[in-house]
Amino acid sequence: MDPRSTGISERIFPMLERTLSILESVSLMFHKLGTILFLNCIVGLVTADVVLRYVFNSPIWGSKEVNGLFLVMVFFLSLCHTWDTGKHIRVEVIYGLLKGRFKTGVNVLTSLSGMVFSGLLAFHYIVDMPFVIRTGESGEELGLPFWPVKTIIAICCTLFFLRMLTHLVLSLKNEKA
């Protein structure tokens, strides 16, 4: 065996582990931003809207639009952290029974499908961004611009793509080990 071939993997995998650590830190920060800030804003806005609607017969105008945008933010900001902590939905009964190459195959398919989904979504939002900004695309009631939310979605999808890529490489590494 060529000693140079092991040298590449010895340099790449520690770098991959550091990248994974950075991605996990960023995803935790995004998750906290989504749950601490936006989720609490949703709760506060819904509570205030209900009180004003039923007690004073004066609902908050545009609260549904704002809550919808905040809910999207919570979802995408927590997407990568949900993967990192294993809180995503999968059929654990079947996945737990898989061993060896079958488990690696499922991990590879999961990574590839996650990369396709998040990659296409990120690509769409990035390519569409100049149009959204130029046309001033906004909500119907309040006229809130959509570009900040779409920018966050693009960033979160790119982060998820990178996370799936690291999962793919590590799954293949573990199969060879």
Short summary:
With 177 residues, the protein is mainly alpha-helical. The protein has five helices and no strands. It has one domain (3-176).
Write a structural description:
The chain contains 5 helices and no strands. The protein has helices spanning 3-55, 63-84, 92-97, 100-135, 147-176. Helix 1 packs antiparallel against helix 5 (147-176), helix 2 packs parallel to helix 5 and helix 4 runs antiparallel to helix 5 (147-176). The longest helix is centred in the N-terminal third of the chain and has 53 residues, at 3-55. It is elongated. The two termini are 16 Å apart.
How does the SSE layout of this entry go?
Layout: H1 3-55, H2 63-84, H3 92-97, H4 100-135, H5 147-176
List key phrases describing it.
single chain; 177 residues; mainly alpha; 83% helix
Tell me how many strands there are: 0
Q: Can you tell me the number of structural domains? A: 1
Mean pLDDT: 86
Assess the beta-strand content as a share of residues: under 5%
**String of helices and strands:** HHHHH
Low-confidence stretches: 1-5
Specify the overall morphology: elongated
Largest sheet: none
**Straight-line distance between termini:** 16 Å
Helix content: over 70%
Helices and strands: which structural class?
A: mainly alpha
Radius of gyration: 21 Å
Determine the number of helices (DSSP H or I, runs of at least 4 residues). Answer: 5
